[in-house]
Amino acid sequence: MTSHPAKKIVPAFDVAKVRADFPILSRTVHGKPLVFLDSAASAQKPRQVIDAVTKVYSDEYANVHRGAYYLSETATANYEAAREKVRGFINAKNVSEIVFTKGATEAINLVAATYGRAFIKAGDEVVITAVEHHSNIVPWQLLRDATGCVLRIAPVSPDGSVDLAEFAKVIGPKTKLVAIAHVSNVLGTVLPVREIAGLAHAAGAKIMLDGCQGIVHRHVDVQDLGCDFYVFSGHKLYGPTGIGVLWARAELLDAMPPYQGGGDMIDTVTFAKTTWAPAPAKFEAGTPPIAQAIGLGAAVDYLNSLDRVAAADHEDALLRYAMTRLAQVPGVRLIGTAPHKAAVQSFVMDGAHPHDLATVLDRHGVCVRAGHHCAQPLMEILGVSATTRASFGIYNTMEEVDVLVHALIRAQEVLL
Ligand code: PMP
């Protein structure tokens, strides 16, 4: 091979450069370098997001959609610019299809309380899967209690897959809505959402995707996915807490009644009658999370500045490496080994409770999540009360997987 000494080899994904953008990653915990493996719960924030939020409060803060003065106009323009950034990020047709909420949980509750109450009746069926987060179970149970609709559960295979043929068995003529995770927060399974959208639509039902984990690890194009609703939280996408997104097709938002009443969501109000503003304002009653939305816009800008294909490859490589290394630790059993997975890995270790394990790992600077991960029904199906979960972000490294494995082996010495 000819060598080109003058040519610099640019790595496809420069993880060191990415890490330098996240100030918290240079701190220590218990005297050890921080190894943050809990991004599925909430991701760390790059300086670009922190700076954007600081700039709002130090330079450009006022309420939005209100004042006819410079600062309010600037804040409004920045808030609405964030909406446009989110639209572009998920390739929604129109910016009016982007509703800001305080998080995915609120977005799902919004769909259940508005679309659900208006269009789902006694005897109608809502289909979810066995892998759902409580946020995508409980709102539908509330709807069931209010309307008498039926909740049907698509099963999960022992490896954590959601099988299409099995899924098809729970969809039928009574199905009105399919509400499922894009990616499981416990197992990392990437669900066959395009195919499931096809099944839902063939049955005349709508489909809502809980994209909390999906949008973090996969490029999302809501038109290409063929879904009707897509929800996610800003804080898992390297943005602030207190901001989330509901995307829905324009005609659905138009048909849905408001969620909450208050300022900003109205057209005219008299004591006799109130008319609504068009979407998205109809669903954004009250002063919105202004700085948080702008911070989410900054997170989107940040992700767009990276090679996202290379970032996804990097995360997939981390996952494969972690699965291989963890499986080699005696007494460790991987939970979630589906063929299509994003960078989330649950496991259990013989003789060690996940909480004890997480506490010992913390002494090594390693942050992992232990517990039921807000998926108690899934834990029951898997026959475990809890798991330990390592979840990876764009800033994690192979060396951090080594630290995790080393810390696990040390934990065995302490706990067993
Ligand atoms: N769904 C999934 C798949 C999640 O992982 C989470 C967060 N753990 C949620 C919903 C709820 O998100 P939030 O708490 O940000 O509203």
Explain the layout of strands and helices.
Layout: H1 15-20, E1 28-29, E2 32-33, E3 35-36, H2 47-59, H3 70-90, E4 98-101, H4 104-119, E5 125-129, H5 138-147, E6 150-154, H6 164-170, E7 175-181, H7 193-202, E8 206-210, H8 214-217, H9 222-225, E9 229-233, E10 244-248, H10 250-255, E11 266-269, E12 274-276, H11 290-304, H12 308-327, E13 332-335, E14 344-349, H13 354-363, E15 366-367, E16 369-371, H14 376-382, E17 387-391, H15 398-415
Parallel strand pairs: 3-15, 5-6, 5-7, 7-8, 8-9
Antiparallel strand pairs: 1-2, 4-10, 9-10, 11-12, 13-14, 14-17, 16-17
Helix pairs in contact: 2-11, 3-11, 4-5, 12-15, 13-15
Bound molecules: 4'-deoxy-4'-aminopyridoxal-5'-phosphate.
Tell me the domain tally: 2
Helix/strand-derived category reads alpha/beta
* Count of DSSP strands: 17
Q: Helical percent range?
A: 40-55%
**Secondary-structure arrangement, i.e. CATH architecture of the largest domain:** 3-Layer(aba) Sandwich
Rg of Cα set: 22 Å
Average pLDDT across residues?
96
Unreliable segments of 5+ consecutive residues: 1-6
The biggest beta sheet reads: 7 strands, mixed
The distinct bound ligands, ions and cofactors come out as:
4'-deoxy-4'-aminopyridoxal-5'-phosphate
What percentage of amino acids are in beta strands?
Answer: 15-25%
Distance between the termini: 53 Å
CATH-assigned homologous superfamily of the largest domain? Type I PLP-dependent aspartate aminotransferase-like (Major domain)
Total helical elements: 15
Major sheet: arrangement of strands: 4-10-9-8-7-5-6
The CATH class of the largest domain is Alpha Beta
CATH topology descriptor of the largest domain: Aspartate Aminotransferase, domain 2
Overall geometry: globular
